[in-house]
Amino acid sequence: MGHPVLRQIAEPVQDPTGQRVHALIRNMIETMQDADGAGLAAPQVHVPRRVVIFHVPEERSGDTEESAPTPLTVLINPEFEPLTDEKNLGWEGCLSVPGLMGAVPRFTNIRYSGFAPDGSRIERVAEDFHARVVQHECDHLDGILYPQRMTDMRRLTFAAELERQARRAPVEV
Ligand code: NI
Known about the structure:
With 173 residues, the protein is α+β, with helices and mostly antiparallel strands. It has helices at residues 19-35, 129-141, 159-168; strands at 39-41, 51-56, 70-82, 87-92, 100-107, 109-115, 121-127, 156-158. The chain is 23% helix and 31% strand.
């Protein structure tokens, strides 16, 4: 947080099948896996291009098709639209805001689309965490970090503190 590239509007990728974008994607996957994160956007590795990666791990999944565990997905030039006005509040962390967690309102149901690295088109409907991670990563492409989406800054906390509290009582947001 604070690096200018994280405040920029990222540029669209002209050719999703190109070697340069594939090298970028490999770097992003490695970075996300090293950090044990659920998602990453290209500006986080200091490349201002519209590329995000994410997955929905078992422990963050729900029991609908739209919130089910989802394997690693690469989305190039992603777009999304909310399907309803409903938002819910959930805890988010970010590799670019290390050590902190915040409760962030996000649309509960979205439709998103973009291109896969082989040039094919991806279009999906997503709910709950799946919808959340896509919105979080797409925000990075527009220079927005999650604290800017928070509506109650009292819910910005150290991750270690949140963990301590969670051990005492279930977290309610
Ligand atoms: Ni992030």
